[in-house]
Every structure is written in structure tokens, then in C-alpha cells.
Amino acid sequence: MTLDRTDPESEIARAAEAFGNWGRWGADDRLGTLNFLDEAKRRQGASLVRRGVSFSLSQRFDMDGPQKGWRRRTNPVHTMLDTGTDASLGLQGFPHGIGGADDVIAMPLQCSTQWDGLGHIFDHGRAWNGRDAAKTVTSDGDLVTGIEHMAPYVAGRGVLLDVGHVVGTDGELPDGFAITEEHLTATAEAHGVAVGRGDLVLVRTGRLARARREGWGEYAGGPSPGLSFTTAGWLHRTEIAAIATDTWGFEVRPNEFEHAFQPLHQVAIPNMGLLIGEMWDLDALAADCATDGVHEFWLTAAPLPITGAVGSPVNPIAVK
Amino acid sequence: MTLDRTDPESEIARAAEAFGNWGRWGADDRLGTLNFLDEAKRRQGASLVRRGVSFSLSQRFDMDGPQKGWRRRTNPVHTMLDTGTDASLGLQGFPHGIGGADDVIAMPLQCSTQWDGLGHIFDHGRAWNGRDAAKTVTSDGDLVTGIEHMAPYVAGRGVLLDVGHVVGTDGELPDGFAITEEHLTATAEAHGVAVGRGDLVLVRTGRLARARREGWGEYAGGPSPGLSFTTAGWLHRTEIAAIATDTWGFEVRPNEFEHAFQPLHQVAIPNMGLLIGEMWDLDALAADCATDGVHEFWLTAAPLPITGAVGSPVNPIAVK
Amino acid sequence: MTLDRTDPESEIARAAEAFGNWGRWGADDRLGTLNFLDEAKRRQGASLVRRGVSFSLSQRFDMDGPQKGWRRRTNPVHTMLDTGTDASLGLQGFPHGIGGADDVIAMPLQCSTQWDGLGHIFDHGRAWNGRDAAKTVTSDGDLVTGIEHMAPYVAGRGVLLDVGHVVGTDGELPDGFAITEEHLTATAEAHGVAVGRGDLVLVRTGRLARARREGWGEYAGGPSPGLSFTTAGWLHRTEIAAIATDTWGFEVRPNEFEHAFQPLHQVAIPNMGLLIGEMWDLDALAADCATDGVHEFWLTAAPLPITGAVGSPVNPIAVK
Amino acid sequence: MTLDRTDPESEIARAAEAFGNWGRWGADDRLGTLNFLDEAKRRQGASLVRRGVSFSLSQRFDMDGPQKGWRRRTNPVHTMLDTGTDASLGLQGFPHGIGGADDVIAMPLQCSTQWDGLGHIFDHGRAWNGRDAAKTVTSDGDLVTGIEHMAPYVAGRGVLLDVGHVVGTDGELPDGFAITEEHLTATAEAHGVAVGRGDLVLVRTGRLARARREGWGEYAGGPSPGLSFTTAGWLHRTEIAAIATDTWGFEVRPNEFEHAFQPLHQVAIPNMGLLIGEMWDLDALAADCATDGVHEFWLTAAPLPITGAVGSPVNPIAVK
User: For this UniProt entry, which segments traverse the membrane (chains A, B, C, D) (predicted)?
Assistant: First the structure.
């Protein structure tokens, strides 16, 4: 598949037409591809718990995170309402020697390991399922497809595609590397794992490992390996429920068009209704999968049900 | 067991002595009773996924929550950085028709459905495992037992004890009702379920159902059914990994001593190292359990790994 | 002047037509009636400093404020980044015995004593000076009339009109009391003070004094004395630079039309370009003015230059 | 005066002993040197309003500010609760064509132009007036000397000492330049202005002008010109009410001792009770003073009365 790199708008329109899912689950749908994750898939996923070992796929949420302020995305600010120092000095006014600590947080919902909600991206003023973006996401939040509607469902079979290890060097792909359908297929074959309807697919590029080694640099917003625009067909045809990567932006950066900004998002979220995860930490899980040769597992990655949110921090838990 | 209601300090000291776990998992322990949740328990839990149906046990996070400002605990404030209205009007400056929405949140970590971290409560200046509270939780957060350390582990066998239905009227216990060991045991027997080492136990009182029907009122901080101080022995003896309720404060309110504040917390968190969840929404799960008669399930309730946090919002997912 | 209480839209249109100032200070104007406050007026104002006594006209900013959550307006949440307890215990890691405390705040800009910026209210999609509201105030804030543009100018002659004392009972007007032009004129005459071009006019109703005595209740958003819709002509004719009250909403509540919401705002801000202050604490100043009989003074009430803000907290300082 | 650069602790102790003011205004004092600013000084200050021109001495508060995250100090995050785009599209649900915009802010109180409160710095566990730091500033804020107590008073005679212009090159001092008493005196003489009891002294170094030209770089926390530790005696002897600079940290950076952190703060705030302002924008005022040769003016710089705050953003207004 060749892209006209000078004409993203036409290419996006073509992909949206070919791979869109508007109306597939009815006019009132709020779940998009998460509809593919059914009870049978959950039973299959649960059967993958063999050893009982669990992994968190989340980065830590703190001021040492990757954000630099782009579009007012800061790192989380965590402050204390009460502390052990106050308690220790007897300053809290509680009876019988009890003391307490409490805390608050302020953070962008997309500051670290997160899901993009269906209201996160629009295509020419249209949100998921063809809705008017202006009537879907206002200053009051996402009035229709807020991420709270997904709260109970994101638990099923996870599949790791460690493209960094299979295709890259020392487990890492370079910035600007566009992962194609061929790379995804080759990786799945190398792992001996199949990807299909309702799966939660995790694509490891090694970009986070590099940031961890070399410092954040432009991890959040800069050059990165990621999915090629040309994978839109694969994303659609496989009928996966969700996909997540260890990169800031899921798709390759710089983008594959001359003047573009996240064109695969524009196809995948508002047109396909695909649930996308970003900045996941897949390294410990990948190391385990490399060791035991098993790249499928039970995965729970439930967004916080923040009413009207277009994204959510998440601590995904894989159990093998 | 009879309590001297005039002397909470002595009763707490006695319970702490009898039911404390300091040193049980070594001097460096950061997990407390979560140590009981091992890989075998996870395998057992996963085997409980029979139908593949999933439930979120989280309340929604928004301004309509229960908080009234006690100790600066507010409801979550969710605001938008970008919206569909801006995108729709072509005001975002992006190419090829892409538009986006982003959002931020500010919230106390204990504002709604949450876990108490091990640094949340102190006993006479001592934190979990006997540590000096002042050196454990400062303005920089919990430097030792921050909730990020629990991130990978809270997935296992869940057991619902619907005391509201078994002991109460119309599924609800009245405010001030102290749930005793006998109530817990009778409920487990009525459900035909056993509670043991490593389990994640959910106790439903019906308090949230009442708040949902009648309005929040004093849900957050006021009178409530909850665990009796006298259950400390049961909590210790059963070797459960964690416990959560549908109430604000886990234990009965008013407390069972004349001048007291959360005495069971003082035993359970810093002395026993027990992981406690509060304000969980157990109603949909309870209805399902009442229908199919199965009160055990796979439960994932991973806290966000907020560095140094003494609590975390959580969206617990039960799968049956 | 009689109002058709069933037709706010026509009455507003009439008043906007009669009392609007669009174009008066050029197409690029960002200041509205603040243009009336010139250097001569500042010289006059400074000459009113006779005794050198200063008054803060600000309520305190804290969790004990009036907000109840309407439209996500909360009270300020102030938390510490570092404390004296940490410093005292030697936990901060600084050399030679220095210790420090730092703090953060999260607050709506209209939570307490504040100015409404010119981008705060629109009339049928039009912002101040006839601008398209959609192109003026987006999710990025007020791109044109952000309150930062007023930062240097709000210092001049202040005049207190204590309508509560002159017209009310025991210094207070009842809720729902509509202050008319006649009340304003009578009060100025009783005080022996003239109101004119460029003045910063403070209208005391006594509503805050009542809230202070009886509790906040519905102070923020509920019934209140305030300016009648019929004062629009007086506000325009006097050519005052700004007006502020001790009430939540400046104008009388309930509003004087059957189905209405803040109709005088709709005339005064987008059409007249009037700078409006709310929730000011005028009581100490009013007591002093009653004592010495002087109701004019030097007033500095500079908004924080928050880029793109449509309001700002302010600590107004009157000096007599 | 020579400093032993290897022994900051002894030098600080000596200066604290020589220049401390504990008890000078009684045991209950909350104002420190602000006590020097009396009504006569305010009358003198007001008399300096000759032309009626006003200047804001505040930087703008936004994400483009100087903070880099040191000690969780971020730049302000300003978000909208309602916008003109929503209003324009008729999505707000208000009657008769009214629309509105509202906003919130989250910011450290010391992120930009600000006052240090008296609870901001401690000396060996002692806060201003000899108080126990641990009992003065807890997680609940500054319980004694919160900046709200200063709210009405910071209005008086301002004096600009443009050391950058008098002593520097092209109006700027280089980083690491320690401003001594001699520099301050020479600058005052060059300006023909006297500094004395109760004055609000503004020292311009040109550091902000350089940051504005070259980018923030390490403006917040890095090398900078500033007051020498040796000016402690001058600060004390002149009996000024407050001092502010156009730099991040008031005193010279790197500090003049080998292993030190802000030693002049340690003398000036907890021992002397001096009110210190930082990150003020003095450039426009300085240009005007250079033009008309008048370096004194009426200055109002009222902190927001945030209960228990150890600092406050401020928009200082100078009027000449």
C-alpha cells in the first residue's frame, strides 16, 4: 500500500470510508470496538492465567514524568492534606493516638499511562459514530461517550506484540520507524500467537526503555516509532477491541505525510471507534513473555469512571 | 467480646498487640496483608470466571459525589483543555480536519471509590511495620509505603459478603449498625462461601443504596453501618488480603467508644497492615450474586501508581 | 421605568441598544468602561488619602467560603508542598539549618472576591465590542479581552454607596430587594458624595454581613438584594469605570423577569463593557465611612494578570 | 565586611543575632517589618501621585512562565469551565440569549510574581518571632502568620533602585553578581532618592529583561544577580517594610558560601521578619523612572488573603 504523502486529507478520507464502523453497533453506541470484547473472550482470557503472576503495565504518576507542558499537559502534582510529621508531633487533634495522612492530585488525564476515550479525537467536526463533535464534547466534558461508559468492560485476553524485540535492534525500534502490517504479522508469528476479534493488543516498540535509559527528552510529543498509517486496515480487519503502545502517541512520529498531525488517530478513534492506550510500560511483561514464550494473558485495564472524560489514567494489570 | 466503651486507647492497644503483624514479612515490607495474596490464590481466582460477565465496582468521579469539604476533601473537578465545540468551529489550528479534546482533573485521592494506602493511618506516631510516621509520610508523600508499591498485586479471588441482604431489612443495615464476626460468618454461610487467606473481601451494607435513593446527606463522614471494632480478630485470623465496603469509613459510625475516631482503622492499617477499600459500589454485583447464588469471583482492583500516595482512586472490576 | 416581566429578551435588547458602547473606544478595545479611568481621575483619587489608613475589601480565600459546587465552582483548595513540621524534624535536606514551606492553590477564578472579565458574559453569541464569542473565548481562554489587559489600570477614586445603611434596616437590604437609580441617588446624597466618570463604585447591600452572621446558606447563587435591571441607564450615564457589590451576583436575585438569568449582566458586560466586581467585603470600610462621614477614597483593585482569564480573584485596597 | 565562605552556619547565626527583630512588635506579631509601614508613610506615598500614570509590576500568570518543576513548582494551569464556543453554539441552556464563560486555576503560590509570607522560611526550626516552626506551619498551612494577615497593609511609598542601570552594563547585572550595600547606596544617590523606614524597596537587576530576551533558561532556580548576604545589616538598619526584586530568589545565586542555600533568606524572613517579593517585572516602571528621573511612587501590592498561605501571587501597582 502506497500513500500519497502530500495529501493526508484524501488518504484519511479513503481510510475512514474503508475502515469506519459508524452505525455498526447502533446509533446509540458508546463503546466502539470494545463491543468486540464479549463474555466468551473473557472466558478465554481468564483461561490464560496459568502461573498466577501479575504485572502492572503502568508508569508511575509523579512530577518526574515525561510532560513538558505541550497543550497544558503537565506531570501530576501530588500534594498532602495531612502528613505523618504532623501526626507525629501531635498536631492533628484526634483522640486516642490515631493520626492520619491524606492527599490530593491534579493532573491531565493524558499525562501518563492512559486510555484515549472515544471523545478524544474528531474528524472534520465528527465524533465517534458520526456524531456532531460540538454536541458531544463541550466544556462540560463528553456528554455522550464519556469514558465512564467503558468502566466495566476492559478486561479480557491480552496479546503482546513485542515488535521491538522481533524487528528492532537490542529490543528497540528507532524514532520514525513505521510499524506496518507485515511487522505486526511477523511478530505474532515469531511469538506463536494469534490476534483476533475482541483482543486487547499491546505493541512494544522499546521507546520507553530508551527514554528510561537516556532521559525523557522528547518522549512526550517528539519523534518515536509507532504504527504506520497503513495499519488502519489491519486494525479494522482483526476486529481487536483495543490497542496500546509504550509510546506517547501510538502512531509513528514524524507522521508519514508531509504536513500532518496524528492521521491514524483521525481514522481510528472517530471513524473506527478504536480504544487506544498510550505510554504503557510493557517492559517487565515483555521480559517475562520472552522468558516463558507465552505472549498472551489475562488483562484488566479499567479506566476510572470520570464522568465525561475523554481519557483516563489507568494501571493495567496483566496476569499469566 | 465486650468493649470498655470509655477507654478506646486501652482497647486499641490490646487489639494492636493481639492482632498486629509488624515484622511478619520482614523489616522492609511495603505490602502488609497483600502478602497473603499469592500466585496460587490468583489461579484460584481466575478459575472463578465462568460466564465472562464483568462488573465495575466504582462510583463515578464527578462533582455530584458525596464530599462536603471535610478536611479539604472535595469532589473531583474535571475541566477541559480542548473541546469538540472548539474543534467544530475550526479553532484548533490542526491540519487535515483533525480535532481533539483533552482534559484535566483535580481531586483528593480519597474522594470516592478508593483504597487506603498503608501510610494513611498512624498509631501513636507509628506507621505500618512499626515505622516512625514522621519519617514515613512527609509533605513529599509516603516515602516508604507509597501506594505505587501495590500497583501490580491487587488481583485475586473476591468474595462478596452481602450483610445488608442477609442481616438487614430490604437489603440495608441502619446507620450505627455494628457488623460483628457473627454477622460476617452468618452471611458467608448463607452465601455458601468461605473466606480465607489471601481473599479480597467485599462487605455490602446497603448504605450506598440508601444514599443513592435519598441523596448523599451525610454519607461522607456521617453515621453509617460498618464493621465493629470487635472484628479485628476476625480480620487478622482469616488472613484476608484486603477488605472493602460500600460505606465512607469501613467501620461503624458513630464509633463504639464514647470519644473516638475510627479506632478499627488504627488497629487495621498501621498495626495489621490491612488494605482497606471504601465507597465501593457493590450493588450491581450483589444483585447478580443474589441471582446466581455465586458470591465469589475474579477481582482486579489495581491502585494508580501515584508515587508516594497514601490512597488511590480505583475502578475495581469483578468478573464472574 | 416599567419592565415587561414576561419578555426579558426584548427588554435586554432595548437596553443593549440604548446603553451599549460597542465601538466607543475603537474596534480593538479590550478595556471597556475602564477607559473612563484616566490619569486625572487617578490624581483626584490619590488626593483622597488623608489619614493613610488602609482597608482590604477581600473575603478570605479558603475552604470555608460560600461555594456549593454550582457549575463546578468550588471553594479554594490550598495545600502545602513543604511545611514547618517537616523542617522542624530535619527532613528537608537543606544545609545550615534553613527550612522552608511552600504551597499551592486550586480555585475557580470566581470563587470569592473577584472581578468579572469582559469575556465572562455574552449576548446572543456576541462578546464585548460586538466580537464573536466563539472566536473570543475558547478552551484556550479569552484570546482577546483576557483580564491580563486590565492589569495596570484598576486604581483610582473609589466611592462607597452604602445602600444597606441608607435604605435598609439595620444596615441590610432583604433578599429580592431591587436597588433602583433612585436608591443609588438617594444614598449618594445622604453620603454627600457625587458619582461620575471614571469612578470605581462600591455598592453595599449588607448581604455579606447577613451571611457572616447566619452562615453562608445560599449566599452563592441564591436570593439576594442587588441592582435592578432598570439601573442600566444610570450605569451608562454616569460613565463609571467599574462597580462592585458585597453580593454573589451584582444584580437582584430572583431576577425581575419571570424566566431569566442575570439579565443586567447581559447588558452591562458584553454591551456596555462594564467592569463588575462581586463578593467584595465592604463592611469594615463602610463602618469607617459611617464614622468619619467620608465615602470616597483611593482604591486599588488590580486583577492578577492571568493570561486569557475571564475573571480574577482580587484583594482590593481602599486607602483614606 | 568579609564572610567566612566555608561557614555559613556561623555567619547566619551572627547576622541573625545582630539583625533579628524577635519580640520587637510583641509576642503576637504577625506582620514583621510591615509594622514600619504606618499611616504617615501612606500619606507620604500617596503624595507621590503626580501624573496619575499606573504600572503593573507583575509578570503574566500562564504556562509560559519560568517554572521547571523544582520542588513541584509548576507554571499556572488555567482551564475553562465554560466558553464562548459553547455559548455561541447555544449549548449552555440559559434563557434569553445570555451566555457565559468561567475558569479555574491551579498554581503554586510562588510560581511567578509573588510575596514570600513570614512562614516561608525557618531558621533551625524557628519561624518568625521565635515561634516553633512545627506549630506554626503544618499541613493545614500557616496557622499563625498566614499571609491573610497582611492583606490590608501593603500600600505605601515605593522606591526603585535600578542597580542594573546604575551599576550594570546595558541595564543588566551578570549572574552571580552580589549587590552590596555600597551598590544600593550608590544607586539611591544616582537616582537622588532616599530609602528609609517603612519604604517598599524595589531592586532591579535586569535579570528578567535578560530572560525575556534569551528565554527562561534557568531563571527559576539558576544563577542570578541578587542581594549579597552582607546587605543584611542595611536591610535591618534602613527599617524598610519590604523589598522585592526582578529575580527568582532575591539574593545572589550561586550563594556566597561554599555549601549553602539562600542564607540571606534565613536571616531576613524568620529573624528579621522582612517581607520579600520575587519575580517582579520592574522594566516598564524603570524605563519611566529613567525618563522622568523620579524613582519614588505610590505602590500597592496586596497579597491575596489566602488563609494560611506562606506566599501569594500579587499584581503590584505603582502609580506616579
Answer: none
Dump pLDDT digits (tens) for C145-177.
999 999 999 999 999 999 999 999 999 999 999
Shortest alpha-carbon distance between residue D78 and chain B (Å): 9
Which residues, other chains included, contact C178 with Cβ-Cβ below 8 Å and sequence gap of 6+? C225, C226, C227, C228, C229, C230, C252, C256
Give yes or no for D93 touching C (CB within 8 A).
no
- Residues of A in Cβ contact (< 8 Å) with B138: 80, 83-85
C105 and chain D in contact, CB less than 8 A: yes
Split into its structural domains, chain C has a count of 2
- Name the residue facing A69 among D63, D79, D134 (closest C-beta): D63
Q: What is the pLDDT of residue C282?
A: 98
3-state secondary structure of A178: strand
Examine the domain organization and report whether C138 and C228 are in the same domain.
Answer: yes
> Do B305 and A9 make contact, defined as CB atoms within 8 angstroms?
no
Contact (Cβ atoms closer than 8 angstroms) between residue C126 and residue D100: no
Q: pLDDT tens digit string along C231-288?
A: 999 999 999 999 999 999 999 999 999 999 999 999 999 999 999 999 999 999 999 9
| Residues C83, A88: C-beta atoms closer than 8 Å | no
- At residue B208, what is the residue type? L
Write the residue in D52, D125, D308 that is nearest to C99 by C-beta: D125
Residue D90: closest C-alpha in chain C:
C125
Among residues C304, C248, C254, C253, the alpha carbon closest in space to that of C276 is found at C248
Q: Is residue A51 part of a domain?
A: yes
Q: Is A71 on the interface with D (CB under 8 A)?
A: no
For the beta sheet containing C121-123, the strands, ordered from the edge strand earlier in sequence to the opposite edge, are C131-132, C126-127, C121-123, D98-100
- Which residues of chain B have a CB within 8 Å of the CB of C77? 72, 74, 106
Let me know if residue A3 belongs to a domain.
Answer: no
DSSP letter, residue B18: H
ipTM: 0.97
Model's pTM, two decimal places? 0.97
Chains contacting chain A through 3 or more C-beta pairs under 8 A: B, C, D
Query: How many Å apart are CA A243 and CA A37, to the nearest integer?
Result: 12
Domain that holds residue D191: 8-71+108-319
Residue D2 lies in a domain: no
